[in-house]
Task: structure prediction
Amino acid sequence: MYARVSSADQKADLDRQVARVTAWATGQGIAIGRVVTETGSALNGKRRKFLALLRDPAVSVIVVEHRDRFARFGAEYVEAALAASGRGLLVVDPAEVDDDLVPDVTEILTSLCARLYGQRAAANRAARAMAAATAEDEP
Result:
């Protein structure tokens, strides 16, 4: 099982996510061999634990609560790669958590700002940019 939250202040959410998926798997008669938890953005392609899980040929199925816990974008490609090697991804709740693109765009903008300007001020710059863009759209 793989569970992820975006920031350290969401630790309680991570614990609840693990509990929900574990309870679901138990109800389905699915044994969870290993629980992997991680804190980091779904846009970060260098999540150490996530990559280790993908590289481990002994992992036949990865169970996640929502697809966005696994990857914000491109999960279909990772699923296809897993399937090509006889492995799979099991999503407990396939419904999208957010159908609003604003959080996704904000996360992308934050990630790009972090790369351009550094981690410390990236979140503030992204928030100001989104606020300015929203203000331009209002009459």
The helical segments are 11-28, 48-55, 67-70, 75-84, 102-117, 119-137. The chain has a mean pLDDT of 83. The chain is about 55% helix and 10% strand. Strands lie at 2-5, 36-39, 61-64, 88-91.
